[in-house]
């Protein structure tokens, strides 16, 4: 009888401890809500008009490039901006476009492009991030044989990097992809006929009608994804052969610009001046689904998207068009620019569902506990009486 009582009391104690533990776990979980304040970073740099944005996970800051001053800057979470690279070997007034951090080699890769009426220039630059931004190479990117750059110039628009340090650069004017190896050797990598097979969107205006392949990301399974502005299509490109396939999507990403990938779950973000699209795929991008579209501030002219600390999604409001239109030339240059977190309500919803499942599980456990307690008490009553 005595032995029975003591084992009952230890069982009793564990019955009490589990639900309490559960309650503690539930209470300590962050409850997502749309009232969360998005992280907005404003930074001051007169006349910068940045087009490219990336995040350096090691040094924990953003990197942005200048429209005309041949500089690349770091921007902290709090909006402190510092000049990281000032490369006067670049042609005067050249533009820094796409940026990517090569984490393997601790380098920053930057697309360099000269806008008309400057002489044509398209190159990829690499800077050593361990070394105060010393330049490793500046590789001019080859044109197609027979192309006259003075008639239609190449545009080195965006860049992605693989784990070996090879860079892949989109040519948005001529619809092909360059490859630049880690020593700076540049070649034309992919000229898939598919890149010229899709119809230009009917509502394409002058701002992107001639803009083809643009945002690009590298995926560790041996391929790249690249988006085409004027058709809104996404292509999957083999890293070895350069062969391309059209990704089947439930919509066209018209006027798409920069692209980024969230490591945690493989979500792809594509930005345009109007919105940010979130895409997922279950089959390594034979097919994909646009599962959220978030409206952006058109005035801010978003051009780039990146994933920052704690998997947060950020877009760059660089007001590039205003800079290109020339208001930067005189004292009237804009001084403030922004990097803003973008929040997907749909993702918030998913998180909540996950939370409800957990609460439901807790409740079920509680019911079982009550049932067993009742049985135990009945048993004890029987034994005592
Ligand atoms: C670069 O821009 C400045 C300021 O707009 C201008 O004065 C200068 O002539 C430009 N240089 C070239 C090579 O176009």
Overall outline = elongated
CATH-defined architecture of the largest domain: 6 Propeller
Q: Which ions and ligands are bound to the chains?
A: 2-acetamido-2-deoxy-beta-D-glucopyranose
Strand content of the residues, in percent? Answer: 25-35%
What letter string, H or E per element, gives the SSE order? Answer: HEEEEEEEEEEEEEEEEEEEEEEEHEH
The share of residues in helices is 10-25%
Account of the 3D structure:
This protein is of the alpha+beta class and 385 residues long. The chain folds into two domains: 2-32 and 349-384; 40-342, Neuraminidase (6 Propeller). Helix content is 19%, strand content 35%. It contains three helices and 24 strands. It has helices spanning 2-28, 320-324, 345-384, and strands spanning 40-44, 53-56, 61-65, 71-75, 81-86, 95-102, 107-113, 122-128, 134-140, 156-161, 167-171, 176-180, 186-190, 213-219, 223-228, 234-238, 244-246, 259-261, 268-271, 275-280, 289-295, 302-307, 313-317, 336-342. The strands form six sheets. A four-stranded antiparallel β-sheet has the order 1-24-23-22, with no helix packed on it. Strands 2-3-4-5 form a four-stranded antiparallel β-sheet, with no helix packed on it. A four-stranded antiparallel β-sheet has the order 6-7-8-9, with no helix packed on it. Helix 1 runs antiparallel to helix 3. It is elongated and about 100 Å long. The chain starts with a helix and ends with a helix. Mean pLDDT is 89; it is low at 1-12. This is NHL domain-containing protein. Keywords: Membrane, Signal, Transmembrane, Transmembrane helix. The chain crosses the membrane at residues 353-371. One of its GO terms (cellular component) is endoplasmic reticulum. Residues 1-35 form the signal peptide.
């Amino acid at each position: 009888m005595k032995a029975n009582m003591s084992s009952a009391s230890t069982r009793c104690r564990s019955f009490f401890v589990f639900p309490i533990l559960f309650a503690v776990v539930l209470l300590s979980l962050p409850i997502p809500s749309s009232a969360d304040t998005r992280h907005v970073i404003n930074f001051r740099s007169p006349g910068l008009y940045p087009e490219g944005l990336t995040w350096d996970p090691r040094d924990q800051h953003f990197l942005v490039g200048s429209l005309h001053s041949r500089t690349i800057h770091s921007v902290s979470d709090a909006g402190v901006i510092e000049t990281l690279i000032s490369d006067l070997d670049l042609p005067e007034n050249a533009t820094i476009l796409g940026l990517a951090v090569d984490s393997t080699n601790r380098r920053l890769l930057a697309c360099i492009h000269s806008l008309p009426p400057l002489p044509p220039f398209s190159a990829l630059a690499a800077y050593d991030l361990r070394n105060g931004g010393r330049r490793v190479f500046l590789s001019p990117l080859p044109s197609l044989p027979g192309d006259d750059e003075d008639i239609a110039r190449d545009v080195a628009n965006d860049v992605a990097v693989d784990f070996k340090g090879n860079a892949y650069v989109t040519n948005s004017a001529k619809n092909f992809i360059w490859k630049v190896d880690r020593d700076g050797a540049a070649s034309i990598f992919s000229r898939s006929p598919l890149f010229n097979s899709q119809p230009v969107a009917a509502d394409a205006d002058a701002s992107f009608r001639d803009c083809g392949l643009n945002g690009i990301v590298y995926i560790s399974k041996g391929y790249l994804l690249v988006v085409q502005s004027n058709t809104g299509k996404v292509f999957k490109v083999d890293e070895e052969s350069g062969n391309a396939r059209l990704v089947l999507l439930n919509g066209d990403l018209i006027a798409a610009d920069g692209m980024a990938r969230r490591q945690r779950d493989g979500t792809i973000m594509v930005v345009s001046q109007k919105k940010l699209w979130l895409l997922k795929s279950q089959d390594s991008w034979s097919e994909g689904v646009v599962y959220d579209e978030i409206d952006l501030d058109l005035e801010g002219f978003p051009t780039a998207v990146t994933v920052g600390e704690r998997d947060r999604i950020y877009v760059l409001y660089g007001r590039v068009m205003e800079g290109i239109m020339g208001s930067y030339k005189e004292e009237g240059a804009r001084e403030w620019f922004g990097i803003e977190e973008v929040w997907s309500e749909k993702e918030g919803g998913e998180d909540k569902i996950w939370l409800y499942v957990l609460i439901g599980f807790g409740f079920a456990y509680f019911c079982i506990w009550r049932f067993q307690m009742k049985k135990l008490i009945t048993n004890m009553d029987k034994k005592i009486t």
